[in-house]
Amino acid sequence: MEHPNVALLRRAWAAYSRGDVDGFAACLTDDWREYEVGEEGYVTLDDERPTMALHRSAFPDKHTDILHVVADDSTVACYCIVTATHTGTYLDAEPTGKRLVVHEMMFNRVRDGRVAETWALTAGPGFYRQITGRDAPMSVDNLG
To answer: Residue 123 maps to which CATH number?
Structure first.
């Protein structure tokens, strides 16, 4: 049987991939924070809402596969592959039809049955760099 914190993480990131803000929020504590390794500060769910909408519009088939998971009663660590096809405008990039792949490690702290903190580390170029070959003009692309 799957650890309850693993099931929680799978529900959270499946909702995120679908652009389901309410489903994602239901898996998070009210004070959830996400930290991107190498970046200053953090994002909140309110910060994440426009990113989710943008990703859903530009990459309607976006999907997160959680491949390897280690969990205990307070932490879930996982290796994920995010795939998407660029079929909508993304920032200043018109649709290219490119198939994108991002590899990510996430460490999630769970409190009272909900994700309280997430630390993410992306390996390789994020969506915008894969599409354009340039750094994103703003920090909307949470996947690099």
So the answer is: 3.10.450.50
CB 30 within 8 A of CB 66: no
With a cut of 70, list the residues of the chain below it in pLDDT.
138-144
* Tokens linked to 26: 């239901």
Whole-Å CA distances, 64 to 16, 24, 31, 88, 142? 9, 13, 23, 18, 13
Check if the beta carbon of residue 79 is closer than 8 Å to that of residue 48: no
Domain span at 93: 4-130
Q: Is residue 10 part of a domain?
A: yes
Q: Whole-model pTM above 0.90?
A: no
Q: Does any domain span residue 8?
A: yes
DSSP β-bridge partners for residue 121: 105
**Structure-block tokens of residue 15:** 């909702």
**How many whole angstroms separate alpha carbon 99 and alpha carbon 31?**
34
Q: What is the domain count for the chain?
A: 1
Rounded distance between C-alpha atoms, residue 122 and residue 119, angstroms: 10
Please report whether residue 142 resides in a domain: no
